[in-house]
Amino acid sequence: MWESHDKKHDGQGDEENLTFLGKGVDFKGVVSFDGTVRIDGRLEGEVLTKGILVVGEHAVIKGIITAGTLISSGKIKAAVTATEKVQLLKPGVLIGEVHTPIFTMEEGVHFQGLCDMGDSPWADQERQETENVHDLAAPRSKVRALIEHEPGT
Q: What is the pTM of this model?
């Protein structure tokens, strides 16, 4: 009798974890989350999540951020590592070092720092192309040296 009901309503696995740090909340320390995190308060320390970190317009984060995806319209001064992507929305500010394969930024965002998007496919192509290129400048430099040092000019 009880077994005939569908297991869709057991509450586990159907819902994504959503954590919220509201406006007016100040937090110092290390926070680790599963799922999606939204921060609208002030956080100083380290944020760790494999999911999505959403930083609201009024949020201020200082420290280290490690996430799957970072979507921010707030103020961040941190070293950021995102395994999937970083998306900055206006009027966001990000000052620091960013390591991510995909980096997008809206017009009106302020970004100051370094961005590392991993190994460049261009570097691999460039190495292959330069292996077959001869240095044409080397013979020219020898010719220039001879011309410049000719007696009677």
A: 0.70
